[in-house]
Amino acid sequence: MASERWNPSVVSLILFSLLAIASAEVFFEERFDDGGWENRWVKSDWKKDENLAGEWNFTSGKWNGDAEDKGIQTSEDYRFYAISAEFPEFSNKDKTLVFQFSVKHEQKLDCGGGYMKLLSSGIDQKKFGGDTPYSIMFGPDICGYSTKKVHAILTYNDTNHLIKKEVPCETDQLTHVYTFILRPDATYSILIDNVEKQTGSLYSDWDLLPPKKIKDPEAKKPEDWDDKEFIPDPEDKKPEGYDDIPKEIPDPDAKKPEDWDDEEDGEWTPPTMDNPEYKGPWKAKKIKNPNYQGKWKTPMIDNPEFKDDPEIYVFPKLKYVGIELWQVKSGTLFDNVLICDDPEYAMKLAEETWGKQKDAEKAAFDEAEKKREEEESKDDPVDSDAEGDDDDAEADDDETDKEADDTEESAHDEL
Ligand SMILES: *[C@@H]1O[C@H](CO)[C@@H](O)[C@H](O)[C@H]1NC(C)=O
Ligand SMILES: *[C@@H]1O[C@H](CO)[C@@H](O)[C@H](O)[C@H]1NC(C)=O
């Protein structure tokens, strides 16, 4: 029995799973689960002089899946927000880098970001702001109807490079988990709520390096290159007498007017009309060119400017994680910030936090929405014509419904 239970393959499987979990290296994990977060995060002085530095609220928000599970939320409109935390400096060389956090826009966000930044050593946290150089910027960004995307900006050779692929972000008022995974083989993945939304290579999805191949600048189309797809048929002959067909002919229907006087008016000639037989100058019909070589394409050559960088994915001195935002409408709540080397670990953390709470949060949100709608219809006097705005229109709809109900009721009474 025992030997069956503990056969070598089972043992190695157990050992392997233990190792897989134990081997996760966590560089930074912030769950905001105690008041101590303020000692770990440094609020920047950026925009303080102008009274435009916004305050953070330590809260689980207006709706949540667990009132005790708090995060930090922007709490003032028309403000800049800049806050960062430090972790022991590390390089992601030869490691997978996982950057994950959750964000909830409780305000109906018209225009604003929900992204975070990874920064490298050499910055002053008290001066952290919009101009502070960063290494990675990642997360959702919404502005109007046109911008609803996940940013993934990588800084390479002191230049910020945007991802070239569109990755749509979530736009509702609930918590979502955003995960960026960067691997030593220079591939990446973007996950939302533990579901992969985009994946690919740093080489193809960002322009970090000059292109590998370019069009040969020396190449010229050969003089005798035949790129005419169709040619006149050499077999086609002009029909006999074709050129004798006149363009115009006398109108056969025209009649000499009755009062025409040849002596006084001269000899009558009928007006002319377009000859229906006339087909224009003769052209041979077109046939496929048997010598057609296709459109000429400039040949591609190796780009002399391209030098591969096997460390294209490496950020050698990662040291800070920060939030730097401008918010017109506040209410964005960040939580569960994680920087580690293990996508499995990140997935589990997301499942234990967002995953466990999402249904209760949705129910709380629906409840809050119901309350809000009730309040609004109470606040709006039903028959107020003063402002023809949307709220009134909604109230009018409600009134129409009530009238319909009344009619139905009276109909029942009569029966
Ligand atoms: C912080 O958030 C809670 C929950 O949404 C709210 O009741 C409270 O008014 C907020 N405080 C500030 C200072 O914004
Ligand atoms: C780095 O940037 C500089 C200045 O823009 C440029 O001249 C150089 O070619 C770049 N190097 C690489 C490897 O892209």
From TrEMBL:
Signal peptide as annotated in the record: 1-24
Subcellular locations according to the entry: Endoplasmic reticulum lumen
Coiled coil regions, renumbered to chain: none
Biased composition range(s): Acidic residues: 382-408
Biased composition annotated in UniProt, kind: Basic and acidic residues: 213-258, 352-381
Annotated keywords: Calcium, Chaperone, Disulfide bond, Endoplasmic reticulum, Lectin, Metal-binding, Repeat, Signal, Zinc
Positions contributing to an alpha-D-glucoside binding: 115, 117, 134, 141, 324
Start and end residues of each stretch annotated as Disordered: 213-284, 352-415
Keyword Disulfide bond: yes
Name of the protein: Calreticulin
Species: Camellia sinensis
Source taxonomy: Eukaryota, Viridiplantae, Streptophyta, Embryophyta, Tracheophyta
